[in-house]
Amino acid sequence: MSWITLKTTNARWEAELMQQVLAAHEIPSRILDTGITPYFGAGSPAALQVRPQDQWTALLLLSCPEEEQAGASDNN
């Protein structure tokens, strides 16, 4: 099975939160640590990956409403 990186973050907890949103919509995902192990509570960089066929649905679920409104106002 192939995976693509959907988002990267500097804190693993952010990737875990995004993964929970996707799981609620039954979209399989996985998290890859891209940095060193956290030390004294510091976050570690991580990448959230999804299957290629779920890419666009996942991007829509994880997008900010402000980004959508900004894009719509640019078109007017």
From TrEMBL:
Name of this chain's protein: DUF2007 domain-containing protein
